[in-house]
Here is the input.
Amino acid sequence: MNEKNKQASLSELSAFALAVAQDVTPLALSYFRSPLEVELKADQSPVTVADRQIEAAIRVKVEAAYPEHGIFGEEHGQAKTDSANLWVIDPIDGTKSFISGMPTFGALLAHLVDGKPVVGVISAPATGEYWLGVQGQPSLFGLTPCKTRDCRSLADARLYTTSPDVFDAAGLAAFERVSAKAGMRRFGGDCYSYGLLASGHIDAVMEMSLQPYDFMALVPIIEGAGGRITDWQGAPLSIMSSGQVIAAATPALHAEILTLINA
Amino acid sequence: MNEKNKQASLSELSAFALAVAQDVTPLALSYFRSPLEVELKADQSPVTVADRQIEAAIRVKVEAAYPEHGIFGEEHGQAKTDSANLWVIDPIDGTKSFISGMPTFGALLAHLVDGKPVVGVISAPATGEYWLGVQGQPSLFGLTPCKTRDCRSLADARLYTTSPDVFDAAGLAAFERVSAKAGMRRFGGDCYSYGLLASGHIDAVMEMSLQPYDFMALVPIIEGAGGRITDWQGAPLSIMSSGQVIAAATPALHAEILTLINA
Here is the structure.
């Protein structure tokens, strides 16, 4: 087999990503709403045996299918990250929701080629829903293509953030500037909010302090649904991003929010 | 039939309440995640045709079954409130979640006898779950009795509130005092948070600016699960309450929070 044949196609990678993300649903549900010991990591974020086992289960499948690919996971670290192909894993995005019994947590899986996210999956085990994004293709909510709402003005927009606690003082001031002009602001949601954005139910999500495994999977989903997702300077999200994320239903709405953030 | 026979039993009232709350699930789901015109009421809270139709459907059934009972609904107002028997209806608790596609909204139905809530239902149409509370009986999550977690200390507690925006300045200061000592604080959830409290997944919910239809159904559910729910002065919730609500998994946790609120 020559080098060319070893390069997996986007359709193969996306089918694999979706299957792997869905395969861990029973494992996630086996721990959901059961008593779990919660540890605090160095950054004070909670982690459970469920996070660790789910990521381990995903890594085993990735390593078996694509032994030469790199892996960057929230719980078990980085491997072979010099590879042009990188899998980015968040086994439970929204661990605080997960341990609270809230159904909005999700498993996130992204595939990057040369640093660019080309496949992303949000799987929500508790609701059985998923979003799939593939570079250059319409995003899917389950089997159905999904599209952002044609919301071009912040005054009409439904804005979400997971918690005011994700912001530092300057970030919170920026969020206040933006949300003061929003049609509605609301809290909670984790990765589920980005799915609702891709499906046209909300119009913007603004967060900071995120890690690459929190946002890389979102990029192909939001872009393939017609939205725009960048950092707070308008730059594409990458492994090196600061963790500031702004996602919006339309380029016009994205531009309006970006101006307010940097006002 | 004499007067005595006309007084419905708790088991009859609770079976009726549960059936009625669940009967409107298809109606709620028919509007969920579909384009809806959102109006703002005088208090700037949103309302849709779904809220109005669901409440109307519930009122028709209550009036047919118990023509002499009073009704207090969020959207269609009060009727026969001088009756010793009163039905309190919130057709969509969490309208902002509902119009955002978030599955945590719910239909709330309470039955009061002489002002005291003796039956309460939280029905979550999007997840198909419900909680039922009946005075003097263990609360149910679906068909299974549910119980709060034995959390007696705020340092161990998972604290929720729907949004920082529910508080006025003094209320927000009180929430900051309480949440600063909580094991975890988190936002979002509406009535669903109280269900998760009754099921032992979270330990406290603190809110203000609520209306009777937002909280009367919660009382039998929280109390029948072993928790405690009052206003911020520790007084029982009633139709005349101020709208400040504190719910906790145990009397000890409730007392600790109450002390901090009033510090």
